[in-house]
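Components:
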Amino acid sequence: MLVQIIVNGLILAGNYALIAVGLTLIFGVMRMVNFAEGQSVMMGAFVAFTATPFIGYLPAIALAMLTNAVLGVILERTAFRPFRGVELNGLIASMGMSIILINLAELVWGTVPQSFDTPLNAVSFTFGTVGVSAQRLLVIAASVLLLTCLWWLVQHSSLGRQFRAVSEDPEVAAAMGINTNAVARMSVVLGSSLAAAAGALTGPVNLLSPDMGQTEMLNAFAAIILGGFGNVNGTIFGALLIGMVQSVAAVYLSNAYSNSIAFGLLVVTLIFFPRGLVPERLEENV
Amino acid sequence: MSDAAAWIVRVVFVAFLAATPFMVDAYWLNMAILALIYALVVYSITVLTGFAGLLSFGQAGFVGLGAYVYGVMTVKGVPPAAAAAWGVVLPTAVGFLLGLPAARLRGHYMAIGTLGFGVLVAQLLNNMVDVTRGPMGLLGIKSFGLDRVSWFYCVLAIAMAVLAALEHVDRRTFLGVVLKSVKYDEISAAACGIGVFGVKLLAFSAAAFLAGSCGVLLAAYMRFLTPDLFLSAESFRYLMMAVVGGVGSATGALISALILTGIPEALRAFGETNVRLLVYGLMVLFVLWFLPGGIGGLLERLIGPRRKRRRSATAQAAPKGDAVAGRAS
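Structure:
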């Protein structure tokens, strides 16, 4: 039971963290909330689903991430660049893009939920008395790997320094010769491909349907708020917390209320900590 | 355009709306009634975001609360008028209570906090099967016994009355100035002796009142409710209507509610649901690209007097204290 809870919690946490970190990155750089992130998750899952029979599962994840990188470029051009400084319009524009993406997906893949079977679903490892499928372990391992890569990118690469500079002060960053538009585009590209990875990884654990990303995105928001907007490390912590709480609650309380529990936790946290558990510190944004 | 001309435009607009039952069939009249009911919740966003600069992603929660309070009470045998009163009072009270913590939150924190409230209400409606009948839907809601045309004139009168009240508060009262001062610069407002927290609470309660009324009307008109009508996606749809209408313009909110409810239906010419919703999404994007001030902004430019035009220019500069601008959070 305990192993089951921990594994399920880590899967949820990994999924939320991948989505939330992308959202946080975009928010940090552009001060905009990407409401199409859930649909990036969905697109990633479906691209991987379609490609798996031809090129195998692992290359299909890479392909989904690449496809979503292109989607990120499109999103930045249509929903973010035109609305710099008018954040609310950008938010609604990204909602508009999410309507377009959902309906595009329904046209291509239909509305009936589909199950996504990979060879890894059949292999399982035993811990004590419980068996855990290789797919589930892959979700956890790949989330950790991707998040570590992102951490390295943000902390130690030139691009990461540009991210941090722009999120701290876009004008000064631009004056120092940083191409803020390119940095903003990269943030959406990264956010979108991380979401694709989240979708492609957890797709085989759940069912695929064109409206699948929505709930994950809401939970990712909860994680971001708990961790402090624009703070990557805090966001990962928030995702862990939400994932674990949901996993415990699904076993001991009720599955039907699992989202209520995440958001109940969020509302209670906001009452006592109005700026999140890890308060936003301007110099550490992104 | 002069004031007189602007008045002529208004009268023609109202007359045009009032003539709707004579111009369209029952199907479109039904859509018009729904659109006018939805206008109330879009007004609630006008008050909250447009006037006070607060952001709520949970308005569908209040609509659902109002609708289900009215629905469940009439099913249990409470007379419709009393049930309607409860259906308005309860969401207002909940809005006040939610405002106590939410009004302390800034920008996006407030948005996501209220989103949490919306998700909670939707899940409660879905899971409290013994009260709400959950996903099976609530049947047997009593109503006021009006026919469709009377319904249309009732909701039109309500929508126009609220519109007039909001325009009055916005343009002619001290409260309007107070709300705007909180929106544009909280610190300066507080320094001028304005009780910022109280003003925010008032905006929250007023918005919950409007959204709750929308819910009551929706329940009384449709006489059938399912929790699906009040999911977070609906909150986002209302927000979309508000932004396309140009947040802060009540007239824009009304027109936008009419257009955005009507267009998906008009697009049935495209056949398949997905194609028409795709076109709908594209249209929203186009409005945002080419009319950043929304329908309200367009109206200001076309029929607004010069004095107002200048104000709209400052309104679009999105100053620092704007809770919508994330920098402040």
